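Notes from the 1:1 (GR / supervisor)

We went over the backlog. Supervisor wanted to see one worked example end to end before approving the batch request, so GR pasted a single chain during the call. The sequence is below; no edits were made to it. Supervisor asked that the structure be written out right there so they could see what the output format looks like.
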Amino acid sequence: MAVRERDYMQSADPAEAPPSQAGWLARLNDFGERHATLIITLSTVLIILTVLIFAKGFYDRAQTERAEQELAEADGSDKLNELKGKYGSTPAGPRILYRLANRYYEDGKLDAARNEYREFQTRYPRHPLSEQVDRALQSLDKNLKFLEGQKEILLKQARLQTHPSQLAGAKDPRFQWGPQLQPRPTVEFDFGKGPVKVELFEDEAPEAVAHFVKLTEEKYWDGAKLDVVGDRKRVHVLPKADKPLEYTLPFEPTSRPADAYVLALVRKEGAPENLAGQFQILLKTVPDLKDVTIFGVVLEGTPDLSTLKKEDAVKTAKIGSKRDHPYEPKTIPKK
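Structure output shown during the call:
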């Protein structure tokens, strides 16, 4: 039995389109026919540009990853200079330049260091490391000024004063006074960005240092997670959830100011003791930070600390040097 096709199922006849619509379609079709080559060319160019943009993005990302890896392994000025040439235009370029300037400074090549610092100031005036570059350049200029003027004057003096730390070994009996202080302990961290060496103030905070050294020897810090708090003012090395410490530490007041790159124990506000298994590294000076136990300072690797972020972790921590005695801190059992 035949079924009659309903009106809404029937195809529209192009000839029945409204005059305005038919005219618009005709003009569009005519434009397409007349400019077909141009349209195809533009489409091809857009596709090629899109592919190139994505390829450039992937290439830049790969270059940055290689630069970070090689920078973490670089040590000498020759290698850093090589990295500067290879990766100077990548996001790792500022840190490479800063590391190179610092290496020249440490090697005593002050003129070369000053050139690198000034290049940094010119190329990256708003980079987070620019403040440290300014301080380093001021220190370098003071050293150069000393070498140019005061050094020769002091060398011509008949006798230089003995440094207080060398009084015990002085040949002149007038300067022999008190025992010679032992070197401070050191610990070297690896956060995956390069070595960070810290010196510990054992004479000022012996219990804090004993606790810190003991946990380092027990590999407690290896794998500890990080947090960046206070508008990037501090790096907080967090306690391990799988290795809880059932004790706290006695509070040791120290007179040192809360300058950038010092190490401080964590203490809850108003608490009479310090928390164990965690500490903070100040990335900036915090003038209003009072009543804390400051037990160390970063000697090397300060540029690498500024790149740390939340959820990073300590890869390894190892003792660089320590004094010849057991490190057993006094502890307070948790209530």
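Supervisor's comment: The first strand starts at residue 186 and ends at 190.
Batch request approved.
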